[in-house]
Design a protein that fits this description.
mainly alpha, 3-stranded antiparallel β-sheet, 3 strands
Length: 106
């Protein structure tokens, strides 16, 4: 096992510890257009089943789409508009982390 593989595993173990710690939500501001897209992802009628076979890249994309939908749900249920028309919402650190990780890939 390479040094990177071992360190990646340790990072995963740290993530598991963070999940168990039940970290408090963080207040974030989501630009209006992005908030609308997140809500649309939540409201999208997705009747498709998980493909029986998918490669790792497709699995990551599917999970990210799911995270976007969960952010949309949170915005829909608890988001508040600020003076500029953006949405202020408390999100779990896990959702924020997945979004920030996706930002490194665009």
């Amino acid at each position: 096992m390479s040094e990177y593989a071992d360190e990646a595993r340790v990072l995963g173990e740290i993530g598991t510890a963070f999940r168990a710690a039940e970290l408090p939500p963080l207040r974030v501001t989501v630009p209006a257009a992005l908030a609308a897209r997140a809500v649309a992802a939540w409201e999208r009628d997705d009747e498709g089943a998980v493909p029986p076979v998918e490669d790792a890249a497709e699995r990551v994309r599917r999970h990210r789409a799911g995270t976007l939908a969960l952010i949309g749900l949170t915005i829909k249920e608890r988001g508040q508009l600020d003076a500029a028309g953006n949405t202020v919402v408390d999100l779990s650190p896990e959702l924020i982390g997945v979004a920030m990780d996706a930002a490194d890939k665009i």
